[in-house]
Amino acid sequence: MPLRSHGSLSLNRTLMAAGLVDHVQVTLFPVITGRTGTDPVFEGGGDFDLELVESRTFDGHTQELLYRPTPHG
């Protein structure tokens, strides 16, 4: 059964580190705000290579990207 996790950075980092994540879904909302983010999502986690499995574009702008993660190295 698929499990989706939204918003729990510590849970997501733990699942990634344990090798329990089959796919990483990234949704891009193209906006320029003029400010720089300060908190990396996976700060302190391992390095992963991401293989693009699927992509979709909504409304001509927003993209949904589905990746398969593998530990880097």
From TrEMBL:
One of its GO terms (molecular function) is 5-amino-6-(5-phosphoribosylamino)uracil reductase activity. Residues 3-60 form the Bacterial bifunctional deaminase-reductase C-terminal domain. One of its GO terms (biological process) is riboflavin biosynthetic process. InterPro entries: DHFR-like_dom_sf, RibDG_C. This is RibD domain-containing protein. It comes from Actinophytocola oryzae.
